[in-house]
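step 4 of 6: structure.
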Amino acid sequence: MNDKLEAESWNLVCFILISAANLEQERKEYGPLRLLETASRLVNLLRENGMTSKRLDAIQTEIDANKYSVMTDEVAFSQFLQNLALEIVDYL
Amino acid sequence: MEVIEAIKTRRSIRTFLDTPIEKDVLQDLVKAGVWAPSGGNMQTWRFIIVTQSRQLDYMRNLSPGIFGQPKAIIVACTDVVESEKKGGQLGHTMALMDASMAVQNILLAAHDKGLGSCVIASFHVSAVQKLLQLPSSIKPLLLIILGYPTGKPSAPKRKIEEVTWWEVYSER
């Protein structure tokens, strides 16, 4: 078994499950934030295990540059989410 | 650092250098915390300082609000039994406020020492209690993640005029 991959996967699973448990009580914007963070961490995990692509790197860069706007500008964060969805089409 | 300068220049920091924090520095932060006011001088706050690498990893697993790799976490807790005994029906509410004031002291002390910090409320309370072997009477309220910062984010706007009234409230 690839111990490193197992440990990194486990960390990601923990993040997702604890987020699921807590999001019932948290502000609704944290739901999308946790999903963005999951996507970013998944890209990291893949990269550290030898799998990269331009579109994965590009999407991660977008996510990490904009995710914290949820703390300061809800309108901008919402727009970012919608723009990200449209950007995905360019990479299909 | 002047107090008002510390208040205005502190930021929530989420990315850190791989530089360890000395234990006496962390101890100084908690010392600053316990100088906060507390309702009826209850002082029902309790602090767990986490520095070991593996334990920090486990804390990250249980705390979706932690971004980045902090070098230490101070877990600000309250003794729920003491809070109710000393504060009656208001005890728990007062304990929350007291712990928050202590946390603010810690944030400013950390900033004064060149450390970055961020307060985290998104963590699984029961799971953290289990990990840190806390009895059910000791409830974690807030996490403070700490480390030497990699940068300084800009400050969100503060709206002093919109949140202040003199003497009485009125619609604007």
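step 5 of 6: annotate
 - The helical segments of chain B are 3-9, 23-33, 53-61, 80-87, 91-112, 125-131.
 - The beta strands of chain B are 45-50, 72-79, 116-120, 138-147.
step 6 of 6: archive
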